[in-house]
Structure formats: C-alpha cells, structure tokens
C-alpha cells in the first residue's frame, strides 16, 4: 500500500518497469504504429525534407519563444571609437542618428566622463581597454556593420579593431602612415609627391647630422600629434642647442625637416586644406578651405569657405591632395590634407585620416551638408549624393588662442559687443573664467566666433571689427595680470606666440602622453 497525503487524489503507479505507461488518446485518434523489430523487418522510409527544409520551416514560423531573433543588416550598429577629436559628442548624435543604431567605444578619461551622458542618449557605450584582442571580442558580440573614428589619437586602435573584425577602414599600415609624420614623408617621397627633406633623430649625433644636412631654419615636431602641439621653428644655432638638450635623447625620436616658406598672402594665411572622400572606386575632393594667418610658430586661428584661390590654383591643390591620399593607401572615409602655398607652388604639409576640425559646423552653415553624416554613410558603404554645393557667400570661423605660458583665464570682455557686429552670427566660449590653461605652443582654443560675409574683403573687415571689441584677461603664475586682444593679422601679441615674452623663459610644453594617446589641445587641423 502506498501512503499519500491527506486530501491528495490517488494516482496510478508503475509497479514494475516492464508494465506499459498509460497514455491518453482522444477518441478517433489513430493508434501509433510500432516500428518493426528483429531480423527481416523493413526499414521505414526516410523523412521528407531533411535539415535544410526544417530550418526553412523554422525561419518562416519565426523564432522560438525565448530564442535569439534574427538581426537584419539595418539593425546592426555603426561603431564609433570616440575621443576628443574633430567632431563633438553632440555633432555625432545629430549627424549619425539616421545612419544606423550607434555604439560608442570610449576609454576611461576625463573627456569621456564629461561626454558619456550625451553619448548614452544617442546609443550604447562600450568601454575600451588596453587589450585589443579583448576589445575586438567584446565588439564582435554586437555584430557592427561598420567602424569609424573622428579622433586622431584613435586612428591606429580603430584600424586594428577593423582588421580583427574584417570591417572596412584604414588598414593598420595606412593608419600608421597617416599618424607617423616621418613614415608619411617617406611614402609620399617614394610616390614622387613630396620633396621636403626630413630626418628622424633620437640623440645628439642624429640631431647634429640633421642640422648639417638641412641647414636653418628647420621645423622640429614629434612623429605623432595634432594641433601643432610641441612643434618648434628653429632659426638659430643657439636655439637648436637648447632645444636638443631639452628634447633628447628620446626613444620615439623627433622629426626634423626643412621649413617651407609660404608665399605672401596677407590678410589670408599661406596654406589651405582639402577635404576628400574615398571609396574603393576612388577618391574625390569635396572642398578647399582657406586659412587665417598662423600665430608663431604654427598656431591656427581659424578658416573660411571658399578659399581665396583662383580656379587653376584650386584644381592644383585638389589634384595634389587626391594623389597624396591614394599614395598612402586610403580607400574609405574622409581625409583632411594641409597644403602650403609657396612661391614654387603647392607643397604637402601633412595628410590626416579623418575629418578636419570645425569643418562640420562650416559645411552645415555654408551648404547645408552634415559631414559627420557623410562620414557615417561612407563607413556603411553607401554612396554620397554628390559634390558639395558651392557656397554663395564667404562663411568664416575664428578661434582666440590661449597664451603659451601657464595661466588662468580670469575674465572675458566684449563678447556681446563682438556678437553685435554685422556679419557675426555666433560666439561660443570653450573655457570659462576660472579655467586653468596649461600653456604650450600647441593650438589651444578659447572660443569659436563665426559668421558670414559677402566676399573675402568684407570678411576681413567684419573680423577686424569684432576682434577689436573682444579681449581676454589672464592671471599668470607669477601673479601678473594681462589683457590680450586677439588679432587677425600680424603682429600678434607676444603672450600668444611661441617665443619668450619679454626675454623670459620659453613656455613649457605639456608632457607627451604615453604612446601619443590622450586629449588633444584642440580640434583644429
């Protein structure tokens, strides 16, 4: 007898394993045939269809409850390796929102901490580590359609991720050429596009040999970097000796190259930039950007569309930029190529494998095109709608520079008066009063002032009027207070130039981050 709980109904038991189980069969349901066994039994016919047909039936029926739904190509995300670069978090959110679902790959940094909330509102974020293989595995689980970056410091890491996941981007070899100034010069020279003599030096002996071969003046810069950070113009042997003592020895080395003397072009700068778009079918120029005069040694103050060039000069610089991009092996994405205008013709300064700084804002105002969105379309393998429409007026930007000596911004005067100038349409501060400025000769921007003029002469008049009303007050580490008015053309204030003010010591450069990765001083260039 089997014991049971009180109130529990009796149940049938299998008293012996050989007794058949009781099965409920509805009335009229056919009895299941037993498979014949033993010698001589016929083999039943095979099921029709097989695994392929069963998989097709399952696909038509949809996923099983709790199973993983199939992902279409349109649902796969666009991955963006994000850091301080040529497009802000807000510009990425606006420009890429319609392209695909977004995944932002970010590193632990002060800049990413400030912008992560904006990124999370636009898509998913994934934390990058210093282990490329682990990063690739984590990203592969998200099945991205494409990968891109707008940060110079992340070009090599993005190329390595793309290679591991077989996604279109610069190859690791191309990314190395785009970010190493010495290697880039060598490749362009072999392609017959560059005649600038340069040397990579690691010690005092190499320094002396480079100066003997090149003479003075020379330009000294790190092999990796942006925004003219740690770039020096050496004009005397005394300056060369002091700089060598400060910089050398260095395992990464420094690039020493001949100085390109620009042609006279005031009130405009003696260089331009060319934006290009590349696909496997080829490279086409998008726009030529004019530049304002540099503040010594090579600090950038802004740009404008269209450039003040003749049609023949514009074709010449476009052809040079397209040839340079091809020579470096670029087959996808946007590139930003800087070209010096010399008395002997255009000469290459450098090619950058991403969108130029502040150019998205300029393109949106000048012709209604979002270049961040275009970069996303190129990454996804889509065709661009066509060339950029020519602007009907001159659209300009101007950036006030921070002093080369460490200081604190204590006040900004005249911003409202500058905005009131006819033709000025906006002014945005990047540094608030009380903000600490580290100093250095890199292009560190305090603000962005923008507007529109009927022609280039009207642009110059508008900027000169607006800048005469704008000033910044700084308190330096020795306790002195100085007020600086930005200028469009030389002479520029000594406090903004990379030369010793009043005979004092040269302003120190911020330390080069390990592996040349870190926050750039500006988005220019």
Structural commentary:
The protein is of the alpha+beta class and about 525 residues long. It has 4 domains: about 80-170, Rossmann fold (3-Layer(aba) Sandwich), CATH 3.40.50.20; about 195-260, ATP-grasp fold, A domain (Dna Ligase, domain 1, 2-Layer Sandwich); about 265-390, ATP-grasp fold, B domain (D-amino Acid Aminotransferase, Chain A, domain 1), CATH 3.30.470.20; about 395-500, Aldehyde Oxidoreductase, domain 3 (Alpha-Beta Complex). Helix content is about 30%, strand content about 20%. It has helices at about 50-60, 90-95, 110-120, 130-140, 155-165, 170-180, 180-190, 205-215, 235-245, 310-325, 360-365, 370-380, 415-420, 455-470; strands at about 80, 100-105, 125, 145-150, 200, 220, 230-235, 255-260, 270-280, 280-290, 300-305, 335-340, 345-350, 395-400, 405-415, 425-430, 435, 445-455, 470-475, 480-485. An 8-stranded antiparallel beta sheet has the order 13-12-9-10-11-14-18-16, sandwiched between helices.
């Amino acid at each position: 007898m089997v014991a049971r709980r009180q109130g529990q109904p009796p149940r049938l038991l299998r008293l012996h394993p050989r007794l058949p189980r009781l099965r409920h069969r509805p009335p009229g349901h056919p009895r299941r045939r037993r498979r014949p066994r033993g010698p001589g039994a016929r083999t039943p016919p095979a099921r029709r269809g097989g695994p392929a047909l069963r998989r097709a039936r399952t696909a038509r029926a949809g996923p099983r409850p709790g199973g993983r739904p199939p992902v279409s190509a349109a649902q796969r995300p666009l991955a963006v390796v994000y850091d301080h670069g040529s497009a802000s978090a807000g510009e990425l959110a606006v420009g890429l929102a319609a392209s695909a679902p977004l995944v932002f790959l970010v590193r632990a940094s002060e800049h990413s901490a400030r912008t992560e909330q904006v990124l999370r509102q636009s898509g998913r974020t994934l934390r990058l580590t210093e282990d490329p293989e682990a990063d690739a595995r984590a990203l592969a689980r998200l099945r991205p359609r494409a990968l891109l970056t707008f940060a110079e410091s992340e070009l090599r890491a993005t190329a390595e991720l793309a290679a591991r996941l077989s996604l279109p981007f610069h190859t690791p070899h191309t990314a190395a050429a785009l970010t190493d100034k010495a290697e880039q010069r060598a490749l362009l020279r072999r392609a017959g596009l560059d005649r600038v003599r340069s040397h990579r030096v690691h010690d005092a002996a190499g320094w002396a040999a480079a100066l003997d071969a090149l003479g003075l003046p020379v330009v000294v810069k790190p092999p990796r970097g942006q925004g003219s950070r740690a770039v020096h113009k050496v004009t005397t042997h005394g300056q060369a000796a002091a700089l060598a003592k400060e910089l050398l020895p260095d395992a990464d080395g420094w690039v020493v190259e001949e100085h390109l003397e620009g042609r006279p072009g005031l009130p405009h700068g003696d260089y331009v930039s060319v934006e290009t778009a590349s696909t496997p079918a080829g490279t086409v120029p998008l726009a030529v950007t004019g530049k304002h005069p540099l503040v010594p040694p090579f600090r950038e103050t802004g740009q404008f569309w269209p450039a003040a060039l003749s049609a023949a000069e514009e074709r010449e610089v476009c052809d040079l930029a397209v040839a340079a991009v091809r020579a470096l092996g670029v087959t996808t994405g946007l590139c930003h190529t800087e070209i010096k205008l010399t008395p002997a013709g255009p000469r290459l300064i450098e090619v950058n494998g991403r969108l130029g700084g502040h150019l998205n804002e300029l393109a949106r105002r000048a012709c209604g095109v979002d270049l961040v969105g275009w970069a996303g379309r190129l990454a996804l393998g889509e065709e661009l709608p066509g060339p950029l429409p020519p602007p009907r007026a001159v659209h300009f930007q101007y950036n006030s520079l921070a002093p080369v000596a460490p200081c604190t911004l204590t006040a900004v005067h005249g911003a409202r008066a500058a905005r009131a100038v006819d033709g000025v349409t906006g002014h945005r501060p990047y540094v608030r009063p009380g903000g600490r400025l580290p100093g250095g000769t890199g292009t560190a921007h305090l603000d962005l002032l923008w507007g529109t003029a009927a022609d280039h002469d009207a642009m110059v008049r508008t900027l000169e009027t607006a800048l005469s009303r704008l000033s910044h007050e700084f308190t330096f580490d020795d306790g002195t207070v100085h007020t600086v008015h930005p200028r469009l053309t030389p002479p520029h204030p000594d406090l903004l130039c990379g030369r010793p003010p009043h005979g004092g010591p040269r302003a120190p450069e911020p330390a080069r981050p390990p592996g040349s990765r870190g926050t750039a001083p500006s988005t220019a260039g």
